[in-house]
Amino acid sequence: MKKVKIFLLIPIIFFFGCVDDSLVLFKQNQNNNFNLKQELSQIGYKFSKKHTSYQYKIKPQDRLNITIFNHPELSSVINNTTNGTNLQGTLVYPDGTINLPLIGKVKIAGLTEEQASEKLTKLYAQYIKKPFVQVDDVSKKIYVLGEVNHPRVIYMSQDTISLIEAISDSGGFTDKAKRSEIKIISGNWNHPTMTIVDLTKLSPKDLNKLVLKPNEIVYVTPIKSKPLDIRILGIQPVIDFVNSILSGMVNVKTLRE
How do residues 185-226 score in pLDDT, each as one tens digit? Predict the structure, then answer.
């Protein structure tokens, strides 16, 4: 009887002994509580709040939250402006300007949040004592679509977010996700660029370098090709855009080990 048990254990030990530990990133828990961040930490991946030196520059049609400290009456007037929509904040007009109390129209597009804050602080110093202005662009976002558990729009509090954080915040991969073909679409709608990332070939150090910038789209490809058909309120044009790219010609580069 003992010999039989030993005989049955040999192939089991052999199988688990041959499993590559680097594949821990792609394991799925039986209870569906798959924690991508926890799995990544086990292979040495460290999350960093400062991914790159990239700084987002304000664009027309962005919405800004502008706070003038010690002057809540001004901040309230500025940030409660809805411009006929349900979105709060100051709209950057197509010509790149905003219209503020006391100082009027100001060119703001092309500046970082820090530069915009400094510019408005100097302008308000002509009208109020010791102003301190903080500008936050509340329209910075990325789209995560395809084979993730919760396809969504992610609004960004920083200028960048790592690819792994974006996937984790979207519930992680589904069982049908093709981890060797993560597509990142960037650029404008007239000249899009698509980068294909193979997560199975990248080390933890390489993963830390994979950062996303505002308005980029992450599409997790299914194992079997199928049209993208996801209903997310307010981004149907984005989904149509992704479908057109996936079926058409676009500048593509592949990021591997």
Answer: 988 777 888 889 998 887 766 766 789 999 999 999 998 765
CB atoms within 10 A of CB 199: 23
* pLDDT-based confidence at residue 38 (cuts at 50, 70, 90): low
Residue from 68, 226, 241, 210 nearest 147 by CA: 226
- 99 and 41 belong to one structural domain: no
For residue 8, being part of any structural domain is answered with no
**1 belongs to a structural domain:** no
Confidence check: pLDDT of 95 > 70: yes
Q: Are 213 and 54 in contact (CB under 8 A)?
A: yes
Residue 21 CB coordination number (10 Å): 8
Q: Would you state the pLDDT for residue 154?
A: 94
If asked whether residues 161 and 96 sit together in one domain, one would say no
What is the CATH number for 234?
A: 3.10.560.10
Q: Do residues 217 and 158 share a domain?
A: yes
Burial of residue 31 (CB within 10 Å: 0-12, 13-18, 19+) is exposed
Answer whether 58's CB lies under 8 Å from 130's CB.
no
